[in-house]
Amino acid sequence: QVQLVESGGGLVQAGGSLRLSCVASGRFTSINVMGWFRQAPGKQRELVATSGVTTTYADSVKGRFTISRDSAKNTVYLQMNSLQPDDTGDYYCNAAGVFYGATMYPRAFWGQGTEVTVSS
Description:
Layout: E1 2-7, E2 10-13, E3 18-26, E4 30-39, E5 46-51, E6 55-57, E7 65-70, E8 75-80, E9 89-100, E10 103-104, E11 109-110, E12 114-119
Parallel strand pairs: 2-12
Antiparallel strand pairs: 1-3, 3-8, 4-5, 4-9, 5-6, 7-8, 9-10, 9-11, 9-12
């Protein structure tokens, strides 16, 4: 199993920056893809960015957010710049393609989320 713990959320004014971190721990050998999703109040959870063989970003965050990964520390980061009120929401860390030895877990794992609030 995998435990994901996020940190770094908070309250920031529009135009400001935050850096989210997510540390993965547990009985696994490797993780193929780690990423960030977010859920705004009253809306569905949506992809923000992922880091695997390739890196992907939602169109709404391209040029403002940067995902990075330290595989040695099983940690993924999300640097968020030029934050806007529409970026407000709960940000969730995700791990997929998790291997224990040569066996891949049949599901993805989620963190508990960290809240980001951007005031106008």
